[in-house]
Amino acid sequence: MTKQKLICIKCGRTNPKKSLNCISCKGFYSLLTVEYSSNKLLNIKELYNNYLPYHLFKDNDFKNCSLTKFNKNIWLKNEGENESKSIKEKDIFVGLKVASYLGYKKTLCVSGGSGKNVVNFFQKQANFPLIKLYSPKGEDYEKTFKLALYNKNKNVWNITPGINPYSQEGSKTIAWQIIDSKIDFETILIPCGNGSSLWGIYKGFLEAKEQGFVKKVPKIFGVELKNGPIGKSLRSGKMEKNGKILNSKAHSIDVKESFSLQKAVMVIKLTAGGIINVSEKEINKAYKVLHKKKYLSNFTAAAALAGANKLKRFNKICCILTADEF
Fold it and tell me: Sign of dihedral through CA atoms 142, 143, 146, 147?
């Protein structure tokens, strides 16, 4: 039987199982993660029941979206094929199921970008209320995010992937599906606003490596707009914000700050990856190419291909298309 605990990546302290913030470090950055200890597993399918929270999941709970070769060095993992058309479906599904297991009757999720569609989807599917919190007109997404983070209602659990450490576990399944394809990718590349998917995918590869299902963790790259908070923090060595949003069509990555910033920076450093900045012109070009090839990706997903086009030194790049248009 796999054991699990909720630990802080900064101080290493074990936290109560319902915590969203480290009881020692506090602050608004997402610092908690689920740590597992398990005996040797027989195959990669066993990761789903042993390395996701509370043995609640199995592999066929998560859609294995297509992974197809796009050109000589780029493969596309199309998470827009999820029923909700978004990568966040996997995260919010895990968050909802853990919330129910822990006894919550209501959950809260900040909705922005493709996450809006996922929340709408799960509001129809969930067996208990899922409250969606949109940014009020004229206010920043980041301000709404902080309101949700400091929610005082103990009967409502925040399952926003950028905040909830259990929800962030959902993205690990993408890594396991990639490993199961038997393609030895040098690089994984994904658009990032909060950066929580960077962390989830990294953890998925790391845990698979610990179990002997993969020899190494690929280099992980994030794609941001100019002066994005993760790249800015990597350059300065400090936890940075972006001064303003750019009103990009790739609105899911058009952010002032990342609430999973320390996790995202850690992933990039540990895997010798990086941040690639893309322009609106490059995103538009990639968007047109994808749609010409019959992909229905939105502009944020197109940013991934725009970034991959700049990584010509790698022979095998897995590019995560995060969402379709809706």
Answer: negative
pLDDT digits (tens, 9 = 90+) for 240-288: 887 777 888 888 888 888 888 999 999 999 999 999 999 999 999 999 9
**Distance (Å, rounded) from C-alpha 251 to C-alpha 76?**
21
Interval 52-76: pLDDT, tens? 999 999 999 999 999 999 999 999 9
**Under 8 Å between Cβ of 218 and 175:** no
The answer to whether the CB of 198 falls within 8 A of the CB of 176 is no
Give the bridge partners for 108, in sequence order.
Answer: 131, 158
Q: Which CATH number is 61-86+169-321 given? A: 3.40.50.1100
Alpha carbon 277 to its chain centroid, in Å, reads: 18
Return d(Cα 298, Cα 114) in angstroms, integer: 9
Measured in whole angstroms, the distance separating CA 126 from the mean position of its chain's CA atoms is 21
Give every CB contact of residue 45 below 8 A, 6+ residues apart in sequence. Answer: 58, 59
Closest CA to 24 of 6, 42, 38, 37: 6
Are 241 and 229 contacting, i.e. CB atoms less than 8 angstroms apart? yes
Q: What is the CA radius of gyration of the chain?
A: 18
Bridging pattern class, strands 317-321 and 187-191: parallel
The whole-model pTM stands at: 0.93
